[in-house]
Design brief:
The protein has 77 residues and is an all-alpha fold. Helix content is 64%, strand content 0%.
Length: 77
């Protein structure tokens, strides 16, 4: 069995792009998902985000961010 490849997705950047598209701020998003603003700012700088937080962000921004991973997996199968 070969090694599992690392993802090329930077989900924090994808979320930031969607926020820019909607004109929302980290403070607004943090309030919507029940997170601390400074903690969310740090999370959005990371390549990976905890699934529960990603779920909440997906709902609030009306974007399936999990699909980014699904599409990459399909390319690798």
């Amino acid at each position: 069995m070969s090694k599992t490849p690392h993802t090329t997705i930077h989900i924090g950047l994808a979320i930031r792009r969607k926020m820019d598209e909607y004109g929302t701020t980290v403070a607004w998003l943090a309030k919507q998902v029940g997170a601390d603003r400074s903690n969310l700012t740090k999370q959005l700088q990371k390549q990976h985000i905890y699934p529960e937080l990603l779920y909440k962000i997906s709902i609030v921004l009306k974007t399936d961010f999990f699909a980014y991973y699904s599409e990459e997996i399909k390319l690798l199968l």
